[in-house]
UniProtKB/TrEMBL annotation:
Residues 132-270 form the ISXO2-like transposase domain. InterPro entries: Tnp_ISXO2-like. This is Transposase. It comes from the Bacteria.
Length: 275
């Protein structure tokens, strides 16, 4: 500390950069440790009860009677990734919807690393789903153009450029159905459906909706049939007739707003591979 005043400007800048990188790394590690907490079970042998072992690469390691050790990232998509000091910036790049080129430039990593990080970081959030919707729930279907980006063979059609458009108007096999369900507390679940029919919709929604849930939809025949099959109270809203709210509380504005935000965020990528 006593030597700081004697450093040249370039040396002080180097020290500042080093401290900033170290602080970002510690912030990432703090986030990882705080969200993971004490591991309840060993990912190798499963029995509960762990003992703190040692620190490695900034993370606390735990041990079990099986003799193997693990940390908060073992068994997760982020295991064995390096440069933890840039992970919080990577989450910001995902939030901002940056392209791979923009992300690699902001993070100071190569494009292959930016690509690998993108898919590793997206692997966990896509599995985070609401397990139950309570009170008044809303459900709606939205559609994404089927994309074979990255696929070189067996397209079954002429290649499109930068997303492209469907050859047919309205719904067809070119569209991938996505079901979204939300309750008024903001709990959300979404599903990529194999087919747009009431059987697949009911199979996706039934585990989420207790019998006392009130389901609001736009009145589509598929959602109406699914609600009947599940045996939940159904309150359809006839949007085509200009009716957006029924009895002051039944509407689908929350789920429609979610669909709109999702599509706006996805549009900047000019077509995302369906796989």
């Amino acid at each position: 500390m006593s030597k700081l005043d004697k450093l040249t400007r370039s040396q002080r800048q180097a020290v500042t950069a080093e401290l900033t990188a170290s602080e970002r790394r510690m912030a990432s590690i703090k986030t990882i440790e705080s969200t993971a907490g004490e591991r309840a079970a060993c990912p190798h042998c499963c029995p509960k009860g762990t003992v703190k072992n040692r620190m490695a690469d900034g993370l606390q390691r735990y041990s079990r009677v099986c003799g193997r050790s693990f940390n908060a990232l073992t068994g997760t998509p982020l295991a064995r990734l390096r440069m933890k000091g840039k992970w919080l910036d990577q989450t910001a790049a995902l939030r901002d919807g940056l392209s791979l080129t923009e992300a690699s430039r902001r993070l100071g990593v190569s494009r292959p690393t930016a690509f690998r990080w993108r898919h590793r970081f997206l692997a966990t959030p896509k599995t985070v789903q609401a397990r139950v919707l309570v009170g008044i729930a809303e459900s709606d279907e939205t559609y994404f153009l089927r994309s074979s980006k990255g696929q070189r063979k067996d397209l079954g059609r002429n290649p499109r450029h930068r997303g492209g458009k469907a050859t047919k108007r309205g719904l067809s096999k070119e569209q991938v159905p996505v079901l979204v369900a939300r309750d008024r507390a903001g709990s959300t679940a979404d599903f990529v459906l194999e087919a747009d029919d009431h059987a697949h919709v009911a199979a996706a929604l039934k585990p989420l909706l207790p019998r006392d849930t009130i389901l609001c939809t736009d009145g589509s025949s598929v959602l109406t049939a699914a609600a009947r099959e599940m045996g939940v109270t159904h309150r359809p809203v006839n949007l085509s007739s200009g009716i957006r709210i029924v009895a002051g509380v039944y509407h689908v504005q929350n789920v429609n707003a979610y669909d709109s935000r999702l599509k706006t965020w996805m549009r900047r990528f000019n077509g995302v591979a369906t796989k």
